[in-house]
Write a structure and sequence with these properties.
This protein has ten helices and 17 strands. The protein has helices at 3-14, 16-29, 37-49, 113-129, 152-163, 218-236, 275-295, 318-329, 350-353, 388-403, and strands spanning 54-58, 61-67, 74-80, 137-143, 169-180, 184-185, 189-192, 194-203, 207-208, 243-252, 259-260, 263-272, 299-302, 309-311, 314-316, 337-338, 358-366. The two termini are 15 Å apart. It has an eight-stranded mixed sheet with strand order 1-2-4-3-5-17-6-16. Strands 8, 10, 12, 13 and 14 form a five-stranded antiparallel sheet that branches.
Length: 409
């Protein structure tokens, strides 16, 4: 183990209180996507305290730059800032949680972005303090609006990095409720799924509920699309390339029990690890919905903004995976780096990995005694704060391994 690696170990643990404090402050703020006024201000202020220059590639997106003054690789480390419109239960799975959103009936950090940002702030603190032992340039990127799919923050960051001449690698951590606390996964290949949206309006003809023959009921049509779609998926999609069908909503346009509405709306998503199969799923869905609508005297209108492939899978680079596993393995106990099942949720970080080679690291937070392990986006979701130093250590270790230690120090 090098002297720098020992410093990383010591500081990741000694700064645990700082990491936890940052996580709790961000957790309490719990601001929705593209409304991260206080969260972005807090993050930027902390970065400025470290002496780092900052820029705002988007309104609530913050990037800080650590230039070592020596030639070397360029690394972008990314975290996300936004919370969710999910009510927060006062308890986690084991009992009262250690901190709550200031607006628990409306918003909370039910996905772990508070932990991601706190870990990156501490990693920035450590790497800045160890600047004289490093080469190259490190960008600390805090992204607004990850949950919405609008990509305001991601696009802003990627455009900014492009203006700087690009980077050699990207890194992000996502806490993962299916992985035991104290474990990390940096496996190569697909880690999180790509996503395609479904948003279709079925247009019929309104009428009185007592005489459906004098109307064209779009609700019946929308309901008929689902079994037809299930049959088409089974018979037309490649069984070796899983595509999940998550139709979550059928809404009729009426509010009365005796009025047939003019329209009904179908919404949902498909998830996949093969982009071509995801694109095919959208095509199959449109073919089925159009044909079913025509058969029933209706018309299907597809929202072009939502009804398409919205994001690619997160795919870890093979070489970066090897670097990450070696770097983290050198500073953590044997068995810390492990494997984990693929996750069918989707991430805006896929756009970074589609642009640069890199890693999405999964950090385990499943701890029965602590009460963490509930599903993400769930009212009982909580993060095991005991794993935060491990995430900090992994981030610093990867950045240093990729940039290279300064041989003269």
């Amino acid at each position: 183990m090098t002297e720098l690696q020992r410093h990383f170990q010591e500081k990741a643990e000694s700064y645990k209180d700082y990491t936890v404090d940052c996580r709790r402050k961000i957790h309490e703020m719990a601001e929705l996507s593209n409304e991260e006024v206080n969260t972005s201000a807090f993050v930027e202020e902390e970065l400025k305290k470290m002496g780092l220059p900052t820029v705002r590639p988007a309104e609530y997106t913050v990037v800080a730059v650590l230039d070592t003054g020596r030639p070397g690789k360029k690394v972008a480390l990314r975290a996300d800032l936004d919370a969710l419109a999910v009510p927060e239960n006062p308890d986690n799975l084991a009992g009262p949680r250690v901190c709550r959103s200031n607006t628990p009936d409306k918003t909370c950090h039910a996905c772990g972005h508070d932990a991601h940002s706190a870990m990156l702030l501490t990693a920035a603190k450590i790497l800045t303090e160890e600047k004289d032992h490093l080469n190259g340039t490190i960008y600390f990127c805090f992204e607004q609006g990850e949950e919405t799919g609008k990509l305001i923050g991601a696009t802003g960051i990627l455009n900014y990095l492009k203006e700087q001449g690009g980077v050699d690698t990207v890194w992000a951590i996502h806490v993962y409720n299916k992985l035991e606390s104290g474990k990390l996964c940096v496996d190569a290949g697909p880690r999180m799924a790509g996503a395609a949206g479904v948003d279709t309006t079925i247009i019929g003809k309104s009428g009185h509920g007592s005489r459906p023959d004098r109307a064209i009921n779009p609700v019946f049509c929308a309901a008929s699309i689902l079994p037809n779609l299930a049959s088409a998926f089974i018979n037309q999609l490649n069984v070796e390339e899983t595509v999940t069908c998550g139709i979550t909503s059928i809404e009729g346009g009426g509010e009365s029990s005796n009025i047939i509405p003019d329209t009904a709306r179908i919404r949902g998503s498909f998830r996949f690890f093969n982009v071509k199969e995801g694109e095919k799923a959208v095509q199959v869905y449109r073919k089925v919905s159009d044909a079913t609508a025509e058969m029933m005297g209706c018309r299907a209108e597809h929202n072009p903004v939502r009804e398409r492939v919205l994001g690619n899978p997160c795919i870890n680079d093979e070489k970066c995976s090897q670097i990450a596993a070696a770097a983290i393995g050198a500073v953590t106990p044997e068995g810390t780096v492990t494997t984990a099942e693929k996750w069918y949720a989707s991430e805006s970080y896929s756009f970074y990995l589609s642009t640069y080679p890199g890693i999405l690291c999964h950090l385990g937070i499943k701890n029965e005694a602590y009460g963490s392990g509930a599903e993400h986006h769930n009212t009982y979701f909580d993060v095991d704060e005991g794993v935060l130093p491990l995430g900090v250590l992994a981030t610093a270790a990867y950045a240093a391994a990729f940039c290279g230690e300064d041989a003269e120090k």
